[in-house]
Amino acid sequence: MTRSETEGICVEVKTRYVGGRALPEGARFVFAYTIRISNTGDAPAQLCRRHWFITDAHGDVREVEGEGVVGSQPLLHPGESFEYTSGCVLETPHGAMHGSYTMFRPSGACFEALVDAFVLADPQAIV
């Protein structure tokens, strides 16, 4: 599990390997990650955007941006948390992700809650 904290927003990530399969165009390795975002600060913050960098074992980087997470833009008051599970498909048995969430305060302030790099790995693969 990885843990990052920025301006009172704590992000914890757990990953798991779902499985792999060979397809005519190549191998696909599927990973799931569960993220818990907690407001440990003293002011509300709303998650508005996500920005991910996904790197496979070849060093190829894919960038993913968009509004919210899993169709939601949660507003977190102090002491509240939001948890979701999503997934990622790689062409290699291991890789990594890192990124950030754009957070807005009711005061109009905006900041990036950083998500430190976390590993995506098939436990049977030799890294």
From TrEMBL:
Gene3D superfamilies recorded: ApaG domain (2.60.40.1470)
PROSITE patterns: APAG (PS51087)
Pfam families reported in the protein's UniProt record: DUF525 (PF04379)
InterPro entries according to UniProt: ApaG_domain (IPR007474), ApaG_sf (IPR036767), Uncharacterised_ApaG (IPR023065)
Domain ApaG: start-end pairs: 3-127
Domain of life from the UniProt record: Bacteria
Name the record gives this protein: Protein ApaG
Source organism per UniProt: Nannocystis bainbridge
Protein's gene: apaG
